[in-house]
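Course assignment 3, question 2. Fill in each field.
Student: A.L.
Task: Predict the tertiary structure for the chain below.
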Amino acid sequence: MPKTVEQKAAFQKNSTVNNRTKHKDLLPGEYSTGPDGSKIVLPFWKSIETRTKHSRKLISLGLLGTGSRYVAGYFHCGGVATSHSTCRTGWRDSAFNCGACVEDNVRNGTQPFQNCGTYDVWGQLGYLEVSMNERNATTRKAVKGTVAPDLHIPQPEYIEQLVKIANVSFVLTQRYSATVWATSIMDNYALHQSFVNSDIPDLPRGKGINIEELVGFYRAYKAKVISIVGKKNLIILNTDKHNIAKVMRKRFGIKEKCWGSKIEDGKHVYKNESQEKFSISSGGTRMSLPFDSSNPSPPVLKLPTPVISLGFPKTATTSIFHYFHCGKFPSSHYRCANKLSSKKAGRFRCGDCVQNNIAIGNPIFKSCGSFDVWAEINSSNIYDKVPTIFLPQVEHLDAIHKNYPEATFVLTKRDPEKWISSVMNWNELHQIFINTNITGLPAGSGKTSDELRKFFKGHMKRVRKFVRRHPSHTLIEVDIDDENVGNILEDAFGIDAKCWSQSNVGSYHVGA
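Answer field:
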């Protein structure tokens, strides 16, 4: 039970807040909001003294990728109402992007944070605008034919308006160096594409593709912030420093153990928690693979991972995905993501990520997700003027071998006549094959059954020949017309044959 006056006051306030929480009636300033729009009740009892010591509101001016989420988690852990990317004006109100609210207010000539919620700390104003692109991907395309969310960073554009706010201090989160930050952005495929394809002050659309351009932008932005805000009213935090927790405690009075936490997905989590495993379907749905005492993790596969499907579209790659997901192994099919979330943000086409990695010399699956199984790694650029398909399983077997010399290959196959009929009856896919210049099927070819049959059979032969030349790989051929395919897969991988069933018959996902 609480003993001191402060502890009793905290206990009483926490009891009152918990009571209001049950009735869904928390007051503004009694909760924080995470980047996904979730609301998290403040742990008032942890740090009453912090709320009195921290008298001025804080606005973080750090760029995405500079550790602002840990700053937000730190203050929330200390009992300070904090927002990170999203805000709410009330407990029952819908979440919105804090940065968009600031942008609208500045354009309308009002106070930047008017009607943007009640917070003591604004952890991140930058945000990704995904809804427009998800609903209508034809509005704007990213470099190399991919679709990326718009990235908005109000800080550099409206910093002069922000510094006029009274009784506010500013935090500039930064990494150990500009190169460290730029490398981390390039290692995050989805975020990097948004930097490249958004029009940001000092980083016009199309810039930021290479590390030198990102480094230049980072340095210019840091210099601009210091020049306008001034060092007297600016707290610079290097989130990579080994003693950052002590620095934060001395500066703000919140316990060191709060550093490294973050607020997301409706909860307060810690940096050292293991990443939850999940699978993601071609439709972008992310499915958790929770393991506990009642649901133990599966035994190690009989064959090495990653398991990479080298089959063409319309050869039951969806069934391969469901088979391994059913066996509790993290799997992707056409779409990828780097974290589990119910939101659309952060998902992308695996083939786009692979193509980008090949272009810049990275391992092909770098920052594409942590999956044991890659059930379909091709992607179709249907929003290009001439729609085409990218088939790394045809064009880049050497790169796959270089990066993953012991990967297990799954070659899904079927009666060539059935595959041809399936492709031709899905008109968009047929035309995409015709448009694309593919090894074994030059652009303009594939209009006839004979050309498609030769291409299909030729791919089977090339894969077998490749594996014979590189015996470090294991090749499992899966004839989807074989009634015994489930048992064949169980013998090869150790997953119950009951997990096999043909899925997605009659359709092919070619969307962005």
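Instructor remarks: Residues 7-12, 45-52, 131-146, 504-512 have pLDDT under 50 and may be disordered. The two ends are 56 Å apart (CA to CA).
Grade: pending
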